[in-house]
Amino acid sequence: MSSEELARKLQRRLRLEALAETNQGAPQPAPCAASAGDREPEPPARAPTVSADSELSAKLSRRLDIHQGAARSRRSKVFNPYTEFPEFSRRLLKNLESMFKMYDAGRDGFIDLMEMKLMMEKLGAPQTHLGLKTMIKEVDEDFDGKLNFREFLLIFHKAAAGELQEDSGLLALAKLSEIDVALEGVKGAKNFFEAKAQALSCSSKFEAELKAEQDERKRQEEARRIRQAAFRELKATFSA
């Protein structure tokens, strides 16, 4: 649906609501007097639809803003940190995921304002209520007032790319998190485009890390089989 069509529908609904309000304010003709026996029962009162109309108007307005580029649409695809942040190593992403889960006290997949407050206090950089709201707003892409894991990763991405102000609370968070993003992630890249260029050369490193993990699991499985075989052999010796 085009933005022009959405705008026309929204304007038409607003005109209908204004017309309805005008009709309600106009004087109505007095009903003819009727006897008690001829009087018809009054129909049941309709439930107010103001809240529903307001909600629909808000949704139409947001969709129009998205089409015009004034707002961002909420992401519906499955988030894959390894493809969206290729400049970060697997080890760094796992460390950041562990940190996110540690401060996600509600275990709902988000860090809200209170959890952000507790995190900054634990890191030794307490923030004011307004400062916390500003921190969340800097990376809150879906405008829900809390951080999902992708938005949490944006903090460290922007910190490594030099996109955060020196007095930003997010920069303090990144520096105090005991995770050297510049070293493990984009290797000191000064801006986003340099980070992307270095990310291309890190693809082979990513594959090497993945293969190393697979080899380690194979070695552990082989060692387990050897221990089981030795145990069975020892058991057979004692049974004989």
From TrEMBL:
Entry protein name: EF hand domain containing 1
Single GO MF descriptor: calcium ion binding
Pfam families: EF-hand_7 (PF13499)
Gene3D superfamilies attached to this UniProt entry: EF-hand
All residue ranges annotated as the EF-hand domain in the record: 91-126, 127-162
Coiled-coil ranges (or none): none
PANTHER family: EF-HAND DOMAIN-CONTAINING PROTEIN D (PTHR13025), EF-HAND DOMAIN-CONTAINING PROTEIN D1 (PTHR13025:SF5)
Organism, as annotated: Cricetulus griseus (Chinese hamster)
Record-level GO BP terms: neuron projection development; regulation of cellular hyperosmotic salinity response
GO cellular component, one term: mitochondrial inner membrane
Keywords noted in UniProt: Calcium, Metal-binding, Repeat
Segments of this protein annotated with the region Disordered: 17-56
Highest taxon listed in the record's lineage: Eukaryota
